Amino acid sequence: MPIYEYECAACGHRLEAIQKFSDEPLRDCPECGKPELSKLISAAGFRLGGGGWYETDFKSKNQRNLKDGGGESKASAPACGSGGCGTTACGTTSS
Length: 95
Fold this sequence. Notes:
This protein has a domain at 3-39. It is 6% helix and 15% strand. The protein has one helix and three strands. The protein is elongated. Residues 64-95 are annotated as: Disordered.
């Protein structure tokens, strides 16, 4: 479940709340009791970038396949439709 940040317009109190996507936003401030809470927009606590979670978190240093040269690099997979995969899923086959 995501963590949402709120701020009270009346007293300035800030808080975090773990809520489901389907939950209604909080309205009443736990400090002053007024219905002045509003959701804040904040940065995510993590970033998915580069080659993926496995590439950046679970491989050893010499096995990384990162853009910045963090180890050995692999050739990219052929584009769909080029017939390089050998399947007929896209209507082409390799010869």
